[in-house]
Write a structure and sequence with these properties.
- With about 80 residues, this protein is of the alpha+beta class.
- The protein has helices spanning about 25-40, 65-70; strands at about 5-10, 45-50, 55-60.
- It has one domain (about 5-70): Cell Cycle, Chain A, CATH 3.30.1070.
- Strands 1-3-2 form a three-stranded antiparallel β-sheet, covered by helices on one side.
- The termini are far apart.
Length: about 80
């Protein structure tokens, strides 16, 4: 089985200037990716941030540029 590592960097705007991301934004991203993992779309994931940029790290078997993977964090 081939595993793809997809990393999405989202510049979604700052919370307290450019120094942080709103906690509810991180919670929502985690909730959406948790749902995708439970449904079998993702093998695993990690939600993190750097300043006000949201980083979504996901493993899956659907290959590069898969639309379902790129949509799942936002649905």
């Amino acid at each position: 089985m081939k595993v793809t590592l997809s990393v999405i960097k989202a510049d979604v705007g700052g919370y307290v200037g450019h120094s942080s991301s709103h906690p509810r934004l991180l919670e929502k991203a985690d909730s959406n990716l948790s749902k995708a993992k439970k449904e079998g779309l993702l093998i695993d994931y990690h939600v993190t941030r750097c300043g006000d940029d949201l980083e979504l790290i996901m493993t899956h078997t659907l290959g590069e540029d898969n639309e379902s993977i790129h949509i799942c964090p936002w649905s």
